[in-house]
Amino acid sequence: MTHRPPEPPFREPPPKRERRAQQGDGKPDPERLYVITGGTDGSDRAPLDLVTLVVARGDPPPASPPEQAAVIRLCKTPLSTAEISAYLQLPFSVVTVLLGELLAAELVQARAPVIRGAVADRSLLEAVMHGLQKL
Fold this sequence. Notes:
Layout: H1 16-19, H2 30-36, E1 53-56, H3 66-74, E2 79-80, H4 81-88, H5 92-104, E3 108-111, H6 122-134
Antiparallel strand pairs: 1-2, 1-3
C-alpha cells in the first residue's frame, strides 16, 4: 500500500470583482482602484501607518461594499494595515482610504502598535534572575 500525501485544502478562487482589481500584468487596475476609493484622493485619510493594528467591531453590514466587507472579515483578529494591504492585494493608499471610511462608520477600530519601553534597569533584571534561581 502506497502512502499518498494529504491533499491541500480547497480554496475557492476570489470573486470576479476582486480579480478585476488586477490587470493581466499583475499591476493594479487604476479604474478599479478609483471605484474602490469612491474617487477620493486620500487627502482626508486617517493617520494610519504600516504597523497600525486594526480590529473589527462586529460583522460587516449587509449593504457594505465588497472591499469593506472583506476588510471587516479579515480583521476579526487584529491585523496591521500592511497585512490587510497584502491580503487584499491592494495598494496601501487604497487600504487607508477604505480604513478611514470604516473608522468613521465605527465598524473597525485602530490601535497604535505596542512600543517597547526603554531597556530595563540591569539591577532589576539581576534581582528577578536571582529570585527565579531561588525557586
